[in-house]
Structure formats: C-alpha cells, structure tokens
Amino acid sequence: MEAAGVTHLGAELRSSFAPNRALIIGGGLGGLFTALQLAPHPVTVITGGRLGETGSSPLAQGGIAAAMGETDTVEAHTADTIRAGDGLVDEAMAGMLAREAPARIVELLDLGVPFDKDLEGRLLLSREAAHSARRVVKVEGDMAGAVIMQALTRAVQAADHITVIEDAWAEDLVVHKGRVVGAAVSRRLEDGSRRREVHIAVAVVMATGGAGGLYEVTTNPAGATGSGLAMAAKAGAVIADAEFVQFHPTAILTDADPAPLATEALRGEGAKLIDATGRRFMSEIHQDAELAPRDIVARAVFDKAHAGGAFLDCREAIGARFEEEFPRVYNYCQEAGIDPVRQPIPVAPAAHYHMGGVLTDANGRTTLNGLWACGEVASTGVHGANRLASNSLLEAVVFGARIARDVGLHMDTMVVHVSRKKLRKVLERKAGKAADPDRVRELRRVMSRHAGVVRDGAGLCRAMRAALALGNSKSGPQLTMMATTALMISVAAWMRHESRGGHYRSDYPKADEALRQRSMLTLKQARKIAAAATGSANPDCEESR
Ligand code: SIN
Questions:
Q1: For position 511, what pLDDT does the model report?
Q2: Homologous superfamily of 6-243+355-427
Q3: Is the distance from the beta carbon of residue 57 to the nearest atom of ligand 1 less than 6 Å?
Q4: d(CA 408, CA 58)
Q5: 169 pairs with which residues across the strands?
Q6: What CATH number labels 248-350?
Q7: Which pLDDT score, from 0 to 100, does residue 15 have?
Q8: What is the chain's mean pLDDT, rounded?
Q9: Where are the domains of the chain?
Q10: What is the tens place of the pLDDT at every residue in 165-186?
C-alpha cells in the first residue's frame, strides 16, 4: 500500500477502507484550485500528464471575467451572462458566479498570479464579445491560462496536504452500495509500464475538462474527449445540456491539432472579420458586429469559411502592437507562416467549450452520492445555451472553492467501506489499451459533420448510430468513453427541435419558447432514445440509412 486509500493487485487487499482523503480527477484549474482550497484535508490529484501542463486551462488566452472595473457592477456581469446564455441560464447561479468572482481574483493574486495592472496598480481589464464592459482580468496580454497554471502549480508543489499522481488517467468510477467511493486509475510506473490501481476516497471530484476532442477541429488539447462526463454517466449521473457545444469563431486555420486560437480580445480591440473579397460581414448580421454572441459569430464565420474563406483583420486596429500585446497569438501566426501585422489571419470555427456536462448544484454536488464535478465537465447552469467569454476559468475557481468548502465540512464525518471482493473485481479488469486511431478519426469526422456548428435530424441520427456502434466495440475504455459522450451530445441535440445558443438545427432554425428549458438525460435514457430513433422507421432517420 502506498498511501491511504490506494491499492493494486500486487498489494494485500484489505476488506475495507476509511481513508480521510479526497480524490480529484484532473489537474486543470478546477482540479488544482479545489485541491488547494481543501487544505488541510488530504487530497490526491490525478493528472493525465505533468502537473500544470494538462487540460485546456494552460491554453486559455482571454482571462477571467470579474466585475472589478470602477464603473462595472455584479448586476451587469450577471445580466450579460444571462443574455449570452440565450434563455437557459440558471439566474441564481449566474448571480452567485458574478458575486463571488472578485473574491476569487483576490485569492489568485494572493497565490501569486501576476494579473496585468496599470501604473497606479489598478487591474487592466479587456473586453470580449457580449460583455457590456471591460471586465476580463488578463496576464501578459494573452497568456492568462499558462501563467495562472504556473502559479497554481507552484502552490500545489508546496502544499503538504496534496499528493499528485502524474501520467495517470481514470478509467472508471468505483461505485459501492450506491455511492461513488473512488476511481480505477491506469498509472504509468517509473519503468514505463502501466498499472491499474484503485483509489478509494470519501469524496471524488471530477475535474476532467471538456469534450472538444470529439471534433476534428478543436482548440482543446489531446485528452479533452469527455472522459469524465462518460464515467459519471456510466455510473448513473444525470447529464444536463449536453447538446450545447460552443464553437469558437476564430481558430487559426492551420493543420495543427489542437487548432491555435486567435483570442476574442483581438476583436475586443477592434479587429474585424472579413470575407475572401475583403468585405467586413458581421456588421450586417448583428448590431454588435464582431462582438455579437459567440454562436452567432461562429455560424457567420462557418458560412464564409465554406464560401471562399473568413479572415480576422488586425492590421488597422492592432497593427504593430500585436507582438507585445498578443504574444501567444503572434507566435501561433508565425508558426503558420502568417504575419498578422500585415496580413489578415485565416480563421474557422473550432469546438471550444462544452456548456453541458454532469449536472451539479451550487456546491458542485452531482446527482450521485460521493461525486462532485468542477469546471468544464460540470453543468452548473451558469452558461445556459452559450457561455459568455472568460466565464469558464471563473466558473472553475468559484465552484472549486464551493466544492472544497462543502467537501471539507463533511470530510471528518464521511466514511466509506469497500469489500475486498469489490476491489478485486475492479482490479482484475485489464488496464485499457489506447483507442484505435482510425476509429477515433471516424468518430471525430461524424461528430463534426453531423453534430457540429450546423445540425439536422438526419445527421444527428447518423451521429447517434456511430456512437452506439463505437461504444459497443471492443476497443477499450478510451474509445468507449468518447463514444458515450458523443452519444449524450447527439441524443440531446436530436431531441431539441429548435435552435438556441450553440445548438443550431437547419431543420428547426428558430428558438421555440415552449422548449426553453435545460435538458436532463441519463445514459440509460439516451441509449433507449438512440436505439429507438435509429432502429425504427422514424422518418427523421430514414435519410441517413
Ligand atoms: C478567447 O480568448 O477568445 C477565449 C476566451 C474564452 O473562451 O472564454
């Protein structure tokens, strides 16, 4: 036995555990912030790569939204969040998010995050789409995610209560007598081999990030394939708003995977979107032009990209300031052979953020006892159908703090017991092999084509059918998890007969007031719906046969 609550087949299996320990699956901002806030309670963090380098958080460019400007208010931040979410935001949750934002920014400053300030020491704030004020705290221009993660990594390394397990990924949750009591983890050992371990904990926090990797073009890093959502769904958790996938309008058009992002802050500084003829197109589509809600800009860019090309023109608005103020985007452009000071940047929409996820309450509790969810994998209700820019890192820290408080309050009184038989059963299952790349490519292709920026019933049937088939295959847990999350997205999208926020159906192009409610699905329900839809003579599916 290496640490309280960890066991593997080479160890003596004890018949029960009662480790006073929390387990956090995921080492992005949500996972690390929650771990730090849990002090002094012992916590293990499982991270897929090296500490601080995994997940979407280090790639974030924009920053964190918080009403900290002199003329800004919590009410305005709440109202913008609700408006962007296109009718589906949980207003109480959005109010709480905006209210608690400034305090979390102060905590991040205390942890050593060097948010940009002016000469008088006031935070420098940038503007992004659908915000009514300059409200986004940033670091070194567009380096927010990387610098925040560096500060948190240092704090985690110095924290005695945190054990970090690198190069490890969870393959399944362990559920005993209706309670989530831990996770089966595939861990890389020093000699390069992998070992399956069970980590038992009184509280399990899922912080595995998003699902952009289910699409061909995504800004998400490798590994963001919806594994946490799939594990929670398999264990019986309710998944909310799965159909709402946000496509960022301005990924730089290169062959790189993930696709490099050209931050929305560029448009906040006045950069314009133009078509292949050099004509600006957003001003005729929405009154806020380039700063219209992200889904509207993404669809317009999608249309132009399919009709000759779409470009982000930064020449006039940013020009020679580009390298100093947007160093990350500047480097991406250089790597792609583009000079953004002199040339418009070719752009296309890319899967960027999953508004849907594991349903939680205000303290991050899921519908399963023993399981909390934090960050992109969660669906707290603050994003509705379309997330307001720079509310995602914010959600991770606001809910991370709430989860830590909730878990911490009960940590000393929570006890879990797991039978030796149960442990052996979980451990004897083989550690999963990596997903077959051809099947992964196939799934990404199907999701992009049929469950992407523009959807319709027939295409969503194809997506459901592919997800069912791939999920049934014997390709191991990674592909099965991807197919599970793809199924949840495509079933929820197939069921929503309207267009709203990030979900656009060409066969139902308008919002329907009668459908203005969040979707809630279990995996069992989704499988049943998909089986009926793809197996019967449903006219919606006929075309795709
Ligand atoms: C961006 O910098 O454009 C992305 C910010 C976000 O997704 O919140």
A1: 98
A2: FAD/NAD(P)-binding domain (3.50.50.60)
A3: no
A4: 27
A5: 186
A6: 3.90.700.10
A7: 56
A8: 93
A9: 6-243+355-427, 248-350, 437-544
A10: 999 999 999 999 899 999 999 9
Return the best residue to mutate from 97, 137, 250, 264 for the ligand 1 pocket (most ligand atoms within 8 A of CB). 264
Indicate which atom in ligand 1 lies nearest the CA of residue 262: 3
Q: Alpha-carbon distance 248 to 299, whole Å?
A: 10
What's the confidence (pLDDT) of residue 477? 87
User: In which band, very low, low, confident or very high, does the pLDDT at 419 lie, cut at 50, 70 and 90?
Assistant: confident
Beta bridge partners of 45: 24, 164
Q: Specify whether the CB–CB gap between 383 and 89 falls below 8 A.
A: yes
* C-beta separation of 233 from 488 below 8 A: yes
Q: Say which CATH architecture domain 437-544 belongs to.
A: Up-down Bundle (1.20)
Asked whether 263 lines ligand 1 (CB < 6 A), one says yes
Residue 56 in contact with ligand 1 by CB distance below 6 A: no
Of the residues 179, 187, 267, 294, only one is catalytic, namely 294
Provide the pLDDT for residue 542.
Answer: 55
Q: How far apart are the first and last CA of the chain?
A: 53
Q: Which helix (H) or strand (E) holds 147?
A: helix 144-157
Strand partners, 224: none
Q: What are the residues whose beta carbons fall under 8 Å from the beta carbon of 94, sequence distance 6 or more?
A: 78, 81, 82, 85, 381, 382
Say how many Å lie between the CA of residue 496 and the centre of ligand 1. 26
Q: What is the pLDDT of residues 438-459, one digit of tens each?
A: 999 999 999 999 999 999 999 9
CA atoms within a 13 Å half-sphere pointing along the CA-CB vector of 28: 30
The pLDDT score that the predictor gives to residue 215 is 98
Residue 294 appears among annotated catalytic residues: yes
The SS3 of residue 242 is coil
Give per-residue pLDDT as tens, 492-536: 999 999 999 999 999 999 999 999 999 999 999 999 999 999 986
